Amino acid sequence: MAELMPSLPLDTLAAAPRDVAVARLVALGPAARLVFRGREAAIGPAGEAFGVPLPREACRVNAADGRYALWLGPDEWMLLALDTDPAPIFAAIEAATAGLPHALTDVSARSTGIEIAGPQAAFVLGQGCPLDLSPEAFPVGMCTRTLFHKAEIVLVRTAPDIFHIDVWRSFAPYVWELLEEGRREFA
Amino acid sequence: MTNRFRTPSGGRIDRRARVSFRFDGQTYDGFRGDTLASALIANGVHLVGRSFKYHRPRGFISAGSDEPNALVDVARDRARTAPNLRATQVELYEGLNATSQNRWPSLGFDAGAMNDLFSPFLPAGFYYKTFMWPAGAWKRFYEPKIRAMAGLGVAPTLPDPDRYTQNHAFCDVLVVGAGPAGLAAALAASESGAKVVLCDEQAELGGSLLAETTATIEGQPAAEWLSQTLATLTARDNVTLLPRTTAFGYFPHNLIALAERVTEHLASPDPNQPRERLWKVRAREVVIAAGALERPLVFPDNDRPGVMLADAGRTYLNRYGARVGERVVIFTAGDCGYRTALDLKAGGVAVVAVADLRAEVTGDLPARALAAGIDVRPATVVTGTSGRLRISAAHLAKVKDGAVGPSEKIACDALLMSGGLTPSVHLFSQSRGKLVWDEAAGAYLPGTSAERERSAGACRGVYGLAAVLEDGYAKGEAAASDARTHAAPGRAAAPASVAKGRAFNAAGDHASADGFIGATPHARNPAFVKAFVDWQNDVTVKDIKLATREGFRSIEHVKRYTTTGMATDQGKTSNMNALGIVSEAIGEAVPKIGLTTFRPPFTPTTFGIFAGEARGDLFDPVRKTAIHDWAAEHGATFEDVSLWKRAHYFPKAGEDMHAAVARECRAVRSSVGMFDASTLGKIEIVGPDAAEFMNRMYTNAWLKLAPGRLRYGVMLREDGFVMDDGVVGRMAEDRFHVTTTTGGAPRVLAHMEDYLQTEWPDLDVWLTSTTEQWAVIAVQGPKARAVLEPLVEGIDLSREAFPHMSVREGRICGVPTRLFSVSFTGELGFEVNVPATYGRAVWEAIFAAGEPFGITPYGTETMHVLRAEKGYIIVGQETDGTATPDDVGLGWAVGKAKKDFVGKRSLERAAFFRPDRKQLVGLLTKDPRTVLEEGAQVVADPKALVPVPMLGHVTSSYMSATLERSIALAVVKGGRARIGQTLVVPMPGRMIEVDVVEPVFYDPKGERLDG
């Protein structure tokens, strides 16, 4: 049987984004995404199996080799690995945490990634996000679940001028188009 | 008459940049840097509007945002038409096209002016007293007529083509107002590195300094100091300067809303720029440096065009090089008027007389006026004015021992008045700070704060350039220091910085606290004079006195009865004088009468700025499934289900909805159909206590459900009513795949999280929303197995290996799947869950594999018909939040032996056992072609006495292609006991007889489910 083609929700919209150097917009490719929740005992082994220790400080990201562990709550992390099959990661973590109270759920297809980069990226995001996105209040390595206009997003600052947005698939066009609206004045 | 009133030099206008504009169809010239008001004044135009109620001719009063009269309509095109703009704030641009309002047929001759003659019949509160008869005429006749006669501009009817954006901003110190106090505060606050935002409603930052020609600061002319200060602030990275930005609302926790007019002043705005931008500023500390507004004097005929505020006359001259007239009379209650007199005289204007309300006129400014040869008249009032569309004379009279003597007409073309200064406490009041009456200042001043703010300069009654600068600087320092000690969460607080203060060496003629509140005396018959208090709402002294005679004593009541201060200017010029008049009339001190509360917005604000980008397709998220585009390409029509777009039906050429749905239904019953069920809510419940948690949340028993099996679950609220339902798969001992209704997904997850976090934190179980992880393709019909079998790997689809209500994991078309054998149609059915990324590809593969069987995509309408034929309920359609499981025939799903579950205790309530509870039944019309209307009432005897007792209502109703007749579900009181009876559904013009039947119309034994 011929292999099926995956499709991402921004395939069409993001094909030709407006060229705005001060706030570049890119739709990110597929990724493995796992939600890990659990009791204390399982947290360490889960991080070890994932290859990135799970951050214990609120709203912080640990990253290594294209793998990111995002703190989303006191007992909740999103484990993200770019362009990776989630199945082996899932199996490895399950093996490492067997018998320890926890929950691991594959949500790789639930959301999609958007990168916005450039000196005006924070300003464009600030049009819909009610958080203080200054480098002091939202430094590199910070992540949080927040709102962009009326859509829930997970926001990560990966570099001083680069943010990653993780948004549920059906909300992705809405977020993308509002980011485009926000960039318009710099076009 | 081009710029006849323009000075030969001076002012901040750019005299090299001529700008041509139109007002009421006539073309004029102005300069860049002019406002519409200053350009018209330079051209000798003062008549710019008609008043709200009496249609009296009106001119400019002020030079700023407090302007009550000069409201104009500025139109770029038919859609870009903005009514009620204050001409004093409209910046001139090439081609600006403005028109006056509230006049017909023209500004010079206005038919509505007859209201002025009828004014004895239009006293305060006239609409409460007249127009009361006949009943009903108010709505049909009086109100529309009054609205057409009164009122201001006309809103455009076309959609607004402009863009509006909003953004969130954060700063340590927000300074509102860029006059001397605000500038000094911004300087001081930014010195320490604090993040500072400085905003001002005017096009240029500088406030009162923009109209200073003689003052000096630190030995420099004020204008020079201003430009250096702005250069300093601009050079600081930690300072954001926002001109043309009005702080219009002060909201809790130091959230201040700023409206920035981005392109309004441009002749041809870039369409990529927003017209306006809403700044939602969360400021750690705020410095309010809003300045003070000059108060008019209230005397007869004080609304004649050419009667203006004294300081406005000075501003037009000094800032815009525009003379308000050639012969000017000044009426003042304090020293402010003399400052204007001296500047006007120096600017080449003949100052004919200064009438001073005070008996004793002493001090430096009056002395200098006398020395300059100005006719200064102490103890003198203006008792009236002459002229029709422009003042031609002022009537001056001496006051002696409280008696007003005979008046003398003095010819003039402008009369400038100064009643003293009113500190602008609007924002402070909006912040819920407490205002305190200050007898010395004769004003309400900021008292106790409710928010982290402080006022600086004239808005707290500090006058004099040096004092204002020093106050501003000190407040800026204090704000920055307080911001450090109250750091944001997650940031370390720093110790307060040491306030150093700064002395400013400044000199100039400055405003002072002296002035007058109320109406000035005159000897005329009060019944026949109009002395205006509130220009915009046409409220006179007479109206306010009438209100006090009728017993109103609190200013809150006087305000509402007379409408004083209730116009769009919120009484910026009128509030204090109204207080003074009430105070005098009832013999109570001003603070006893109170002060009305200021509310946002400070000045009128566009709706566009509030809507921002939330309009059209971006008003709300439009959620689409992975299969949506395929459905659209195949002609589906869509319906909105919460935020989702769902395929409603797939009409073929020439088919209407009825025909399409009938065809889709027959295909599912006879062969196979496919349906996009991706929008169903999904929650993954995982952990060692998952089954226990399920057991507590749902009415059913879950502990013994074997992995690999499905169960239909019912969830109640605490009150025992059905909240949601859905099919749940046990994937493993510790893992459940829960489905919810489409609209209920977020509510159910929150409900579960709530219990888990607050009631049962001890359970080792966690919830994750997987709604969007899975695309769900329902394949339903006798041929469903045949279609799927060749596509599936690792799952035995045979009836024996994979019975109805089972779940298996494997692959379909090479993609991992959770395959459910489940049916919401009554036919053999499967629901294929695949990662949403592959939703469309798998859908297409199944569609291709089904083609030999005539596989038919169907939408939500067919799904509804098929499930109704089987009597399957839809939560929210058959239930309305007051249905118990037993009411809707789900008593079987309640685990009677269970110790507890959410809602169990409520199910024991006596009312739930009453025989007349509304119960789910089927209805069959006597005429099989009649389709009942959903929501129609069901009665036993339509001839019963009105009100006819209602038994219940129709919840679902369709034409069933399968049964070749109409079917309906209904909830009916004691319905199950009525099976076999005939009831009636009364509809307009006819009574429809219906038989009450069991709510399962098709295959009641469920023999088709296994194929």
Automatic annotation (TrEMBL), chain A:
One Pfam family of this chain: SoxG
Domain of life of the native organism: Bacteria
InterPro entries, per database record: SoxG, TrmE/GcvT-like
Protein name per Swiss-Prot or TrEMBL: Sarcosine oxidase subunit gamma
Source organism (scientific name): Ancylobacter mangrovi
Lineage, uppermost ranks: Bacteria, Pseudomonadati, Pseudomonadota, Alphaproteobacteria, Hyphomicrobiales
UniProtKB/TrEMBL annotation, chain B:
GO molecular function: sarcosine oxidase activity
Protein name: Sarcosine oxidase subunit alpha
Gene3D superfamilies attached to this UniProt entry: 2Fe-2S iron-sulphur cluster binding domain, sarcosine oxidase, alpha subunit, N-terminal domain (3.10.20.440), BFD-like [2Fe-2S]-binding domain (1.10.10.1100), FAD/NAD(P)-binding domain (3.50.50.60), Probable tRNA modification gtpase trme, domain 1 (3.30.1360.120)
Pfam families: Fer2_4, GCV_T, GCV_T_C, Pyr_redox_2, SO_alpha_A3
NCBIfam families found in the cross-reference section: soxA (TIGR01372)
Keywords: Oxidoreductase
Domain GCVT N-terminal, residue spans: 627-898
SoxA A3 domain boundaries: 530-612
Domain of life per record: Bacteria
Keyword Cell membrane: no
Natural source organism: Ancylobacter mangrovi
Entry annotated with the keyword Oxidoreductase: yes
Residues annotated as transmembrane: none
GO BP, sorted A to Z: tetrahydrofolate metabolic process
UniProt record similarity statement: Belongs to the GcvT family.
InterPro entries: 2Fe-2S-bd_N (IPR042204), BFD-like_2Fe2S-bd_dom_sf (IPR041854), FAD/NAD-bd_sf (IPR036188), FAD/NAD-binding_dom (IPR023753), GcvT/YgfZ/DmdA (IPR028896), GcvT/YgfZ_C (IPR029043), GcvT_C (IPR013977), GCVT_N (IPR006222)
Segments forming domain Aminomethyltransferase C-terminal: 918-1003
Residues of the FAD/NAD(P)-binding domain: 172-431
PANTHER family from the UniProt entry: AMINOMETHYLTRANSFERASE, AMINOMETHYLTRANSFERASE, MITOCHONDRIAL
